[in-house]
Amino acid sequence: MAPKRLYSLGLALSALASVRAQAPVFGQCGGIGWTGATTCVSGSVCAVQDAYFSQCVPSTVIPTSTAPIVIPTIAPVSGNTLKYVGVNIAGFDFGCNTDGDCNVSGAWPPLTQYYGMNGAGQMQHFTADDGYNIFRLPVGWQFLLNDVVGGTLNAVNLAKYDDLVQTCLDTGASCIIDIHNYARWNGEIIGQGGPTNAQFASTWSQLAAKYADEPKILFGVMNEPHDLPSITLWAQSVQAAVTAIRNAGATSQIILLPGSDFASAQQFVTDGSGPALLNVTNPDGTTTNLIFDVHKYLDVDNSGTNLECVTNNIDAAWAPLVTWLRENGRQALNTETGGGNVASCVEFMCQQIAFQAQNSDVILGYVGWSAGNFGPPSEYVLSEGPTQVGTTWTDTLLVSSCMAPIAGAQSGSTGQ
Ligand SMILES: *[C@@H]1O[C@H](CO)[C@@H](O)[C@H](O)[C@H]1NC(C)=O
Ligand SMILES: *[C@@H]1O[C@H](CO)[C@@H](O)[C@H](O)[C@H]1NC(C)=O
Fold first, then answer.
1. Where is the CBM1 domain (predicted)?
2. I need a surface site. Which of 88, 121, 134, 209 has the fewest CB within 10 A?
3. Is the CB of 275 under 6 A from ligand 2?
């Protein structure tokens, strides 16, 4: 999850000014491929229906936050050249904060049998109707160990988490195990005054042993490290986890390696994370399936807490990153990105995804934040949770307009 992060953004937003005539009420005013008027006659406003169609509607029925969509200059290819497209299914991480404090009883399984949302139905819908093929399953470290640092996986808690993992695997998708602890346990940094690397490795050794025979499991060693005194020491902690996972028998699955600054895609190279993590290897000395884990939001402070989006991140983050990845022969997966269900986010997210797809040799894909226990957009500004009515699922604007590889998919009747 994206907490408060204040970065200096060197944004250069190119505004597309329209000099065309105004569209009439109920006339088209935008959408991909639309070359006609993009402003509406007085008394009406341009409202996004989906990425391909915006329409002038009487302004009295439109919330003030809805702005005219600017036609993306890069044609969205909807992620269909990317290897992985999916969404986070949050809930087991609830109760965790950026200090790595995780309240064990705050963990809320996103499964109906545990009085959560219908995460199983969500994943079935996303795979069947939207073409998603990966889900990230955040979980608090303390929940897995029932608050005993360095201890054994708690059988009762692990069984609940495994219910979500198996539900994910049952869809045929890939599933990321994400320890959502910000490189910390109760405020103390792993390998830098807090839990030892051996204690961190112990948890991963146990998890890897459990899932060693599941090729579709990805091991996300840590969510959003930040404010690390030493990035070199952090790379050693990551190395300990990688060695433990491989030695536990998970020899070929993808392991996701996160840098500092909340796994920022923008700062991955410049803050030293990338250079330090290049040193991390498999026990055989290779870097096969060691994939860098990067996050990026599109709002004004990269916090993932604001409704509106202000950037497609291409110039500031993705372009420099893909250049560096190619130079170093490496790849990255964007495991958190998202925005509000508004026109600005449709515009910029479509552009970001198009750029990622154009660079799918080094960007493996993206995982949105977030579905799971967050509920619909009326309850959480960055919700990507579909609304279920009976057996019919309806996606959010951002998912249906941009993030779903099956273009135009909006609802389906798959899953329960
Ligand atoms: C932990 O979570 C439970 C359940 O949400 C809550 O009742 C309790 O107050 C929380 N404890 C702390 C210390 O925040
Ligand atoms: C990589 O490892 C080498 C030695 O193994 C070390 O000298 C170097 O400082 C490391 N690089 C980074 C960026 O940590």
1. 21-57
2. 209
3. yes
Q: What is the pLDDT of residue 42?
A: 76
Give me the phi and psi of 285, to 5 degrees please.
90, -10
| Cα→Cα distances 251→154, 236, 278, 329, Å | 24, 19, 19, 20
| Continuous H helices in 273-368 | 273-277, 319-328, 343-358
Q: Which of 335, 347, 341 shows the shortest CA–CA distance to 311?
A: 347
Q: Which domains are delineated in the chain?
A: 7-70 (no CATH), 84-414 (3.20.20.80)
Q: Which residues contact 292 (CB under 8 A, 6 or more apart)?
A: 256, 257, 258, 259, 268, 274, 277, 325, 330, 331, 332, 333
What are residue 87's DSSP bridge partners?
A: 135, 368
Which protein residue has the closest C-alpha to ligand 1 atom 14? Answer: 103
Q: Picking from 176-180, 226-230, 285-289, 354-358, which range would have the lowest pLDDT averaged per residue?
A: 354-358
Q: Rounded to the nearest 5°, which phi and psi values hold at 235? A: -60, -35
* CA gap 266, 322 in Å, rounded: 11
| Residue 149 pLDDT greater than 90, yes or no | yes
Asked whether 231 lines ligand 2 (CB < 6 A), one says no
pTM over 0.70: yes
